[in-house]
Design brief:
By secondary structure, this protein is mainly α. The two termini are about 40 Å apart. Residues about 75-90 and about 425-430 have low confidence and may be disordered. It has 2 domains: about 5-230, no CATH class; about 315-420, no CATH class. Helix content is about 60%, strand content about 0%. It is found in: Endomembrane system. It is a multi-pass membrane protein. GO terms for molecular function: glyceryl-ether monooxygenase activity; iron ion binding.
């Protein structure tokens, strides 16, 4: 089991603690629809990683083996690394090797993260993480499914230096695990030495802010010193408004993943020159041709006036979406835990099912009519599968599946009038809360 997968129970324990803090402190830190969207995006990201990690780690391992210019201090895979000498004492050389590796991975992450905000095609992957208008521990799990396909470029120098892929993978995972806890509004400021050296909740809140003064600041993963050294650091002076300068306004986790790529493709198609096409892909995310008004100007915003995306839907739809979100998690966890042994056909079919189920949940939270049709199709397919299972030794599972599908179809039929056409927004906008 990898470091990130092993940390999942800790993630949910800390989310529970933050929820309890919000409840007893009477602070509104979570919204159900937003949190379901966060966790859905994170689930899709993990499933996509099943298909991409082999390619990415394989490329890194090949470079480290065949194109390195020197060999890093020899260590085995974390956490079984040989940090003790053969005599049983601590081996300072290996400890130093791990520390240097961790710092170098964080340095490379700073530049990947910075470019992910400054170059549109990289932003298209990273925008997923910034698309929530909340800031809590669940948002930390809101990750891109495809952004990692480009991130490896920034870690090639580490492979050339000879850092073993096991050491790189461990340090990279620890870097991401560290970043989980800083996605919170429940912690104000830490001791001054922490604020000077490390990335903290205060620093990272700035990074997620859409306020003009907070744009493109505080890129650090673990060590905020990179921002201080390279001129991208800003202190938190007022609580930020979170989200995107052009709000996404969707709970659809599939659209969350691809919307910026679609926007880039449309801009490239409509561009009048190859220079404009180049800038739409590799320019700043805010770049626009002069005839379209030039670069986007980030407007002033405040938490008192900013309108959160919060569609008003019947409570029955919310309960349905929550129920089927919860029901989608066990098969997703099973798929992730068995990905290494499943044939590619079964793995792909399982991934398609999970993405469809979560996409339907997101559409239901917006009361979209397409979600009603897609959900009926999904349940119909499961109904057929349940009937087929009745004739096998798994008849009990088939009976349970039939019962759940039949009840869900009846539930949908009873709520069918609550689903609206895509053009009928029927939204209720709420001001940002404290």
């Amino acid at each position: 089991m990898g470091i990130i997968q092993a940390s999942i129970p800790l993630f949910f324990l800390l989310i529970t603690v933050e929820l309890l803090y919000a409840r007893f402190g009477r602070r509104s830190l979570y919204r159900l629809n937003d949190s379901i969207s966060d966790l859905s995006a994170g689930t899709i990201s993990q499933i996509a990683g099943v298909f991409t990690k082999v390619l990415l780690i394989g490329a890194y391992a090949w470079i480290a083996e065949h194109a390195r210019v020197q060999r890093f201090l020899p260590v085995a895979a974390w956490p079984a690394g040989s940090w003790r000498a053969s005599t049983g004492g601590i081996d300072p050389a290996n400890i130093m090797g791990w520390c240097v590796a961790f710092v170098l991975v964080d340095f490379a992450y700073y530049w990947f993260h910075r470019v992910s905000h400054e170059v549109n095609v990289f932003w298209a992957g990273h925008v997923v993480h910034h698309s929530s208008e909340e800031y809590n521990l669940a948002v930390a799990l809101r990750q891109s499914a495809v952004g990692g396909l480009l991130s490896w470029i920034f870690y090639v120098p580490l492979a050339v230096l000879g850092m073993p892929w096991e050491q790189f993978a461990a340090c990279y995972a620890l870097n991401l695990v560290y970043q989980f806890w800083i996605h919170t509004r429940a912690i104000d400021r830490l001791p001054s030495w922490c604020e000077r050296l490390l990335n903290t909740p205060s620093h990272h809140r700035v990074h997620h802010g859409v306020n003009p003064e907070y744009q493109d600041r505080n890129y650090a993963g673990v060590f905020i010193v990179w921002d201080r050294w390279f001129g991208t650091f800003t202190e938190e002076r007022q609580e930020p408004v979170y989200g995107l300068t052009t709000p996404l306004r969707s709970w659809n986790p599939l659209w969350v993943q691809v919307h910026q790529y679609v926007a880039i493709a449309r801009s490239v198609w409509q561009a009048r020159s190859w220079s404009d096409r180049w800038h739409h892909v590799f320019g700043s995310p805010g770049w626009r041709p002069v005839e379209q008004g030039g670069a986007v100007v980030v407007p002033e915003v405040s938490r008192e006036t900013f309108a959160l995306f919060d569609p008003a839907i019947p409570s029955a739809l919310t309960r349905y979406a929550l129920t089927h979100f919860v029901l989608s998690i066990p098969p997703a966890l099973w798929l992730l835990s068995n990905a290494g042994t499943l044939p590619i056909g079964q793995l792909s079919a399982g991934a398609f099912y999970i993405v469809l189920a979560l996409t339907n949940v997101g559409g239901t939270l917006e009361a979209r009519r397409w979600a009603l049709t897609a959900e009926q199709a999904r349940l119909g397919a499961l109904l057929i599968a349940g009937i087929a299972l009745l004739t096998t030794t798994h008849w009990l599972a088939g009976g349970l599946l039939l019962t759940v599908c039949a009840a869900s179809l009846f539930w949908l039929w009873a709520m069918r009038s609550a689903f609206v056409a895509p053009s009928d927004e029927r939204m209720d906008w709420h001001h940002a809360h404290s």
